[in-house]
Amino acid sequence: xxxxxxxxxxxxxxxxxxxxxxxxxxxxxxxxxxxxxxxxxxxxxxxxxxxxxxxxxxxxxxxxxxxxxxxxxxxxxxxxxxxxxxxxxxxxxxxxxxxxxxxxxxxxxxxxxxxxxxxxxxxxxxxxxxxxxxxxxxxxxxxxxxxxxxxxxxxxxxxxxxxxxxxxxxxxxxxxxxxxxxxxxxxxxxxxxxxxxxxxxxxxxxxxxxxxxxxxxxxxxxxxxxxxxxxxxxxxxxxxxxxxxxxxxxxxxxxxxxxxxxxxxxxxxxxxxxxxxxxxxxxxxxxxxxxxxxxxxxxxxxxxxxxxxxxxxxxxxxxxxxxxxxxxxxxxxxxxxxxxxxxxxxxxxxxxxxxxxxxxxxxxxxxxxxxxxxxxxxxxxxxxxxxxxxxxxxxxxxxxxxxxxxxxxxxxxxxxxxxxxxxxxxxxxxxxxxxxxx
Length: 438
Prior knowledge:
Blueprint: E1 39-44, E2 54-56, E3 59-66, E4 71-78, E5 84-89, E6 117-118, E7 123-126, E8 131-135, E9 141-146, H1 147-151, E10 165-167, E11 170-175, E12 193-197, E13 204-209, E14 226-230, E15 233-240, E16 243-248, E17 254-258, E18 277-279, E19 282-286, E20 293-297, E21 310-313, E22 328-330, E23 333-338, E24 343-348, E25 354-359, E26 371-373, E27 376-380, E28 385-390, E29 396-401, E30 416-417, E31 420-424, E32 428-432
Antiparallel strand pairs: 1-32, 2-3, 3-4, 4-5, 6-7, 7-8, 8-9, 10-11, 11-12, 12-13, 14-15, 15-16, 16-17, 18-19, 19-20, 20-21, 22-23, 23-24, 24-25, 26-27, 27-28, 28-29, 30-31, 31-32
């Protein structure tokens, strides 16, 4: 399925990696490092961001901020040296937060939380204020637009932070939001919808409304779109509003709908943060706030009322839940990082059988989504602690402090390309590679 979408393992072109599942086929990653050991290079960043770096060929692209200059930044580094090839001020300053800060720096997130995305011709940055900017790989701006200006102000409780997706030559962005104002802001009549653009020029290809019976905050989703091919048709899956839906990539037409874990949509504060993950014709989605995860057969006829098509759920096992991190699919298994219980579990994709659960150290939160390669799971917490877990046994192999003493709110995942790891903290990005001397 993935090869049909032109995906390759040699890069990390979007925040969940080359296959949209957090995993790659690369081998021989270094697991013995520190801020000074086995560091190929490190580069200072001008400010924090929840965005994951993406890697395309010899370039590393990063969304960032400059708090002093109140700028939203797109940054490109040389992958070999870490040298800054270009840095662009990309934010329009559209809208401000309650304190009047142009880039909405807050305690939990900022406008630069969405991750960039790239193909062979374009790198695209999206920001929580609605700015969507397309550049060529040398940093020359090709087009820009602001989603709020064109389609109505966002209706979200928190700063919007879904990352865009590039699927089959199309740029996709979900706007799944409440149907009432939040904090006296937003266009309550806009509804939830999905946008599809031409990544070369920013022209709209289609806009698809995406209705749901959910109410208030349960309508809100911060999840990213993932691709899937069903019956020879290229589709994508989007998660939010108490349901999962599948749509044709070419037209946006809805083809499949499943849910809900929120009977009669009575719970109104169940916003969606984790993105769906697909493996073995199964889509795994996480109900919020200590609720179970659900595995659904993408080949089955789904039903939005009876939940027909569900293979299993984790009801009864409180370890198997995720409020924020997106699960990982790797070698026919799902790995669920439970941020509220600070543990990670390995599960059989087809049965939901739990093979192991590993408790994670540190008092800091674990909200960065896990990544995997070479039979290892890579985790990064709010304080910059990296934990590496053996994917077969659940044993912790490494426990490495990469953050600074007062670091918090580090939410990036760890991209893996060739034998390199890319670790982003609040103010630095490290390229980890085993040296000949170690």
